[in-house]
Request: fold
Amino acid sequence: MTETVTGVPLVLYLAVSGALFLLGLLGVMIRRNPLLMLLAVELLLNSANVALIGFSRYWNVTDGHIFALVVMVVAAAEVVIGLGLVVAVYKQRLELDVDQLSSLRG
Amino acid sequence: MGERIVFGVAAVSAVASAILVITLRSPFRATVALIGTLLSVAVLFVLMAAPFVAAIQVIVYAGAIVVLFLFVIAYLGERTVIEVADRLARYQAFAWLAVIALAIQGVVVLATTKLPGVRDDPRAVDDIGGPEAIGRAFIDRYIVPFEATSLVLLVAAVGAVLLAKRGVRGEGGR
Reply:
C-alpha cells in the first residue's frame, strides 16, 4: 500500500486532459481571429494526446504513443494549411475575422 | 511523492498557460503562452513513461509548429492584433453553456467511473515509450497508418504550395 503514494492515478491525467480540452473548445468558440482559433485547436489536440498517453500507460501498451505521434503529424499538417489560408486571406486585403469571411456560408 | 509534486506543478502550469492562450488578445503573446502549455504537457508525458513522445513534443510542437506560428505573426504584422468589437457577444453565452455542460458531464464521468484501478497507483509497466518499442510498433503493426501519415504530409505540402501560388497571383493580377 505504500506504493500508492508515489504515483499519479489515471483519473488525474484525464482531469488535466479534460480541462485542456474545455479551454481549447472555449477558445475556438469565443475567438474570431483565425490565428487565435488555430492556437486553441492546438490545445484540443494536446489534450487528446494526454488522454492517449495516459490510457496507453494504463493498459501497458504502445498503441497510444503511436496514435499520439500520428496526431502530432496531423496537427503539423493542419497548422501549415491553416496558416497558409490566413496568409492568403491577408493578401486579399480582407479582415482577419472569421465572422466576416462568410462568403461560403450560403 | 516527488512524482505527485512534479505532476501538480506541470498540471497547474499547463492549465494556467492554456487560460492565457485563449484570453490574451495579442496573437504573439498567446503563442508564447502556448509554449508553456506544450512544455508542461511534455513534462506530463515524461511522467507517463513516454520519453520519446515527450521529446517529439518539444522538438516538433514547441520547436517547429510554434516557430511557424511566430513566423506568420511576424509576417502579417500589426493587423493580426485587430479583433473588432463583440458583434456576436450574445452567442458567447451559448459557448459558455456548452463548455459548462461538457465540464459537468466530464466531472460526473470521472467521479463515477467503474474502470478498475483508475484511481490506484498505475502498475509497473514494460518499456512502452522508448524509441525501440515505438519503432517496432510502427514497423510491425502500424505500417499502414505510418505510410498514411506520410501521404497526409505530402498532401499538406502540396496544398500549402497551391495556396501560396494563388495568393501571389491574386496580389499581382488585381
In short: Helices of chain A lie at 10-30, 34-59, 63-91. DSSP finds three helices and no strands in chain A. Residues 10-91 of chain A form a domain with the Helix Hairpins fold (CATH 1.10.287.3510). Chain A has a mean pLDDT of 85.
